[in-house]
TrEMBL record:
Entry annotated with the keyword Transferase: no
Name recorded for this polypeptide: RNA polymerase sigma-70 factor, ECF subfamily
Molecular function in Gene Ontology: DNA binding; sigma factor activity
Keyword Transcription regulation part of the UniProt annotation: yes
Transmembrane segments: none
Domain RNA polymerase sigma factor 70 region 4 type: 124-171
Length: 194
């Protein structure tokens, strides 16, 4: 069934709720360009704004069955877009902070937001490290924070090199396993400890 481009937003929403791909195309044609222009004004990148528009429309399609037919579809779309822009900028800021950290650039952080995100992730890793057995945590910190070699750690703690290697392996696996559902924290972990 073909959907008229002049269909009202309420009728368009009703058709979307039934899974109409034609209605989805009309929705994209109606709001895609405006949404991209809106996103571009914040993101300052054609590529990023295109990616964001695709993300917004994917979210709309995934939630089509719960769209409110009596609500303002345009407002809802732009609300989803604003939230996506916020998440996108946050993710980009976090990624940039980690890239700079990994490159050894410890210049002043551009904004309080970057500080908050970075500190929150370091705190999350710290909490996980606190759950490790004392010896494992100590070995891990000596290796990653103090930059000591396995041989130096073994000598200082009167352990075999093999024990140190085993503890480091277990510590790294524990952190990876617990951070795998948090991609940004996993990136921080990678740059800090791998």
């Amino acid at each position: 069934m073909s959907v008229s481009p002049n269909i009202s937003d309420q009728d368009l929403t009703r058709l979307l709720r039934t899974g109409s791909k034609d209605a989805f195309r009309v929705l994209f044609d109606r709001y895609g360009g405006r949404l991209q222009y809106f996103a571009l004004s914040y993101l300052k990148s054609e590529h990023d704004s295109e990616e964001l528009v695709q993300d917004v429309f994917l979210k709309l399609w995934e939630k089509r069955e719960i769209l409110d037919c009596s609500g303002n579809l345009r407002s809802y779309i732009f609300k989803v877009a604003v939230n996506s822009i916020y998440d996108f900028i946050r993710r980009k800021n976090v990624e940039q902070a980690f890239v700079e950290f990994a490159a050894g650039n410890q210049a002043e952080v551009d904004s309080t937001w970057d500080d908050v995100v970075y500190n929150d992730m370091v705190l999350q890793i710290g909490r996980l490290m606190d759950k490790m057995p004392e010896q494992r945590r100590r070995i891990f910190k000596m290796s990653r924070e103090k930059g000591m070699s396995n041989e130096q750690i073994a000598a200082e703690l009167s352990l075999s090199k093999r024990t140190v290697e085993n503890q480091l392996y277990r510590a790294t696996n524990f952190l990876k396993e617990n951070l795998r559902h948090s991609p940004m924290t996993a990136i921080l972990f990678y740059y800090l400890f791998c």
